[in-house]
């Protein structure tokens, strides 16, 4: 996960939390609406940033894959 992917995830989560609180959302459906709105804010931010920079924010890099590779390197170096 890149820095921008992490930041935009946090934007979506924080927006969702604040929308849920401000609307006093209760129950699954109301909270789901808040989550969609928060996700839309993150999506729009991503699209605007990609448009301004001309670069994709979403990477093919997999956090889990990079963690696995790091573990393998650590194990390999410790067996030497």
Q: What does this molecule look like?
A:
With 80 residues, this protein is mostly helical. The chain has one domain (3-78). Helix content is 80%, strand content 0%. Helix 1 (3-23) runs antiparallel to helix 2 (27-53). It starts with a helix and ends with a helix. The model has no long low-confidence stretch (mean pLDDT 87).
Low-confidence stretches: none
SSE-based structural type: mainly alpha
Number of DSSP helices? 3
**Could you describe the largest sheet, including whether it forms a barrel?**
none
The rough form would be described as flat
Helix coverage percent: over 70%
Sketch the topology as an H/E string, one letter per element: HHH
Distance between the termini: 30 Å
Mean pLDDT: 87
Radius of gyration: 18 Å
Portion in strands: under 5%
Oligomer: single chain
The tally of strands reads: 0
Considering the chains and any ligands shown, give keywords for the structure.
single chain, 80 residues, mainly alpha, 3 helices, 0% strand
Helix and strand layout, with pairings?
Elements: H1 3-23, H2 27-53, H3 63-78
Helix pairs in contact: 1-2
Brief summary of the model shown:
The protein has helices at residues 3-23, 27-53, 63-78. By secondary structure, it is an all-alpha fold.
């Amino acid at each position: 996960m890149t820095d921008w992917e992490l930041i935009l995830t946090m934007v979506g989560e924080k927006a969702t939390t604040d929308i849920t609180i401000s609307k006093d959302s209760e129950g699954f459906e109301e909270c789901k609406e808040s989550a969609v709105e928060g996700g839309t804010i993150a999506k729009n931010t991503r699209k605007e940033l990609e448009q301004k920079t001309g670069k994709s924010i979403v990477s093919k890099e997999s956090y889990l894959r990079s963690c696995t590779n790091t573990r393998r390197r650590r194990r390999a170096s410790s067996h030497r």
